[in-house]
Amino acid sequence: MKTHHDTMSSERALLIGVGWKRSPRFPGMPAGEPERESLAELVELARSAGAEIAGTIFQMRDSADPATLVGKGKLEEIRAEAVARDVPLIIFDRNLSPIQQRNIESATECRVIDRTQLILDIFARHARSREGQLQVELAQLNYMLPRLTGRGASMSRLGGKGGGAAGRIGVRGPGEKKLETDRRRIRERVQKIQKGIDQIRKQRTLRREARQAVPLGTIALVGYTNAGKSTLFNALSRAEVLVSSRMFATLDPTIRAIRLPSNRRVLVSDTVGFIRDLPKGLLNAFRATLEEVQEAALIIQVSDASNPRHAELDDEVDKVLQELGVADRPRLRVFNKIDLLTPEQIAPFKYPYAGIHEGGPVLVSAKTGQGLDDLLRRMDVSLPVDPVVTLTLRLPMSEGRTLALIHALGKVLHSQVEDSHMNLRAEVPVSVARRLRLSTFLNSGTSGASSA
């Protein structure tokens, strides 16, 4: 099985979190707790980017300081801590305005990046497909455009793969030759990238239509990052998708065909892990995987049962599914990593969710294989089924491909060889029957229809 190997040299970083004393967004939680959890998540994000965490600082405030976010006094403390710990990089768990970023850099004499820039950096590292790489560059250019004013030559800190900034967090991507141009040149590049993305989408649409010509049910795995989707995908499909504890290790979509207990073949896709407060502009950076979710007939929402905050993380997943317009799509809840729980800890998962999704959740361990047979059975039951019609066909024996299609996606009720032809009576999904009607093989005079 493939594993992730980090060949990038570590860069020491100081991480800064800010909480609000009054948080109307989380009225039921103690003040600052959501932001502390977010800072802990930022630690994992920074490690995914190759950072060595030198320390964290957390501040509670009534409101954000418009010039520096944290205020002059806290900024002095951050500067002293950066000097003491010898860190060249400060990462904020907030999205900074251009003026805030410049002021903090000036006061601390360190490079400063915010949460969005860190996530973009990770995306730039893990994007493998041409569209993924273009989407990341587009997001980076749109992010940097309002930050050009007053930065001058400092734009050179953003270096491409071969630049002197290689290995520095927050600097992978478009490269200095692009970002040292003026706004007009950047906008021209944005337009060019957008045209390239549109062309790739057209090509992907053609590939999807080709897949749909041989109609298979489609299932998408979704879940918060590190829920174990890729491990589960590998267990179901016997693929060798990258499995890593690093966030966003899976960025580009992976699709495999599997066979369900009823002998139906379906397509299963592995998607990028979701994350809280993901900037809306970044949704396009992994649009390819999210389009697979939008096309799916069944969504499997994977949760990490061993994470005590799994319910809150699931809420974040629900928000993204709502933004994609698929919140009402048939959905199957799967609690993964039950091998890490005791029987007493597993018991509560079996009941509270029973009324939410038909039949309740499925408890599995993708690592050990426990519960996978039950999951496949539930996938079979939950996946919408095409209405079935009964057809009578006469096929030349040379039409092996059509025969294979009928056997793979339908049920042969009767067959007889006659004059180098195969006379068939079979039950097939409506979508398959529609395709066969376009051929000359269907004996329309003797075909009938019935519901499955």
Features:
452 residues; Rossmann fold; six-stranded mixed beta sheet; 14 helices; 19% strand; elongated; disordered N terminus; disordered C terminus
Specify the CATH homologous superfamily of the largest domain: P-loop containing nucleotide triphosphate hydrolases
For the terminal residues, how far apart are their CA atoms?
Answer: 41 Å
CATH architecture title of the largest domain: 3-Layer(aba) Sandwich
Q: How much is the average pLDDT?
A: 79
SSE order = EHEHEHEHHHHEHEEHEHEHEHEHEEH
The coarse overall form would be: elongated
Assign the structural class, choosing from mainly alpha, mainly beta, alpha/beta, alpha+beta, or little secondary structure. alpha/beta
User: Into which percentage range does the β-strand content fall?
Assistant: 15-25%
Report the helical percentage. Answer: 25-40%
Give the CATH level 1 class of the largest domain: Alpha Beta
Oligomeric state of shown chains: single chain
What is the C-alpha radius of gyration, as a whole number of Å?
26 Å
At the fold tier of CATH, the topology name of the largest domain is Rossmann fold
Give a count of the beta strands, DSSP E runs of length 2 or more: 13
As laid out across the biggest beta sheet, the strand order is: 6-7-5-8-9-10
Unreliable spans: 1-9, 150-164, 443-452
Number of helical regions:
14
How many individual domains?
Answer: 4
Largest β-sheet summary: 6 strands, mixed
